[in-house]
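Here is one such protein, fold included:

. . .
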Amino acid sequence: MYPYSSHVWKILACPYCEHSLVQTSEGAMCTGCRAEYGCNASGALDLRLEQPKEYNLEIELGTPLRQLSGLDLAPLPMDADAEVDFIGFGVPHHLTRELMSHFPMACGQDSMMLDLGCGSGLHKGVCEHAGFEYVGLDHESPKAMLLGDAHALPFADASFEFVLSVAVLEHIRFPLVMMRETYRVLKPHGRFIGTVAFLEPFHADSYYHHTHLGLLNLLEYGGFEVRYIAPSKDWTALTALAKALLPGMPPVVRSTLTAPIRAAHEVCRLIAQRRGRSVDEHLRLCTTTGAFAFVAVKG
């Protein structure tokens, strides 16, 4: 079995009844419902749901969405008061220097973070550099530290100071449930940081590609205080579509082929401005980006 620390065993919980788990020779057993959990070939505990579980949500209709004037909707800025110094560290795939600048520093030696949808654990190094004990959970990856379901996180309430979720939300069948589960396992004032697809093409069984309004609604429904919703200025809809239409083509070739379309778009924007039409640059980015980054906090 994967050598989980005592800190991890302390927060592991049954995804059905949320009682604590104890280690067994085969994996783990729930102290409440007595459900037993085995391991995959790599030794990772498999805490995915094997039977249906009912999850009830309440939705209050008619409530207003937060006014967008409270958010810049600009590309994510570097945090001028960054808590973690990542100078000398490479930037893992799907992350940016700007997003990493918003990572929190661990509060203590027993601080833990969750990489939700961790894949092969690509973000482990940068998260540990911030002082956290890394916990990676994925639904499918054979290299994941834990196998589990984002709709039924196998952790006790208020287990983590930080949750990272990179390019995962679009693959979640019931994202409102994931929001509530993420909020549940975060400690008060814990930070939730991640990215989600918008105008990327369908990929790897993606369900919902979120607009800025959809992402704001989702985070607020979960209970989060939203600090940033930021369109990517580099990963545009055109870039994402070109990658899908021209698989295997070197990026420089794709960029060259799409250059006339980018130029035409810029010309149309300038013509609209000269005709007196107000063009909100941030809103333009929100309607043409391939993905959004977000930073949110549990109150």
Notes: The mean pLDDT is 95. The longest helix spans residues 251-274. Residues 72-235+285-298 form a domain with the Rossmann fold fold (CATH 3.40.50.150). The first strand starts at residue 21 and ends at 23.
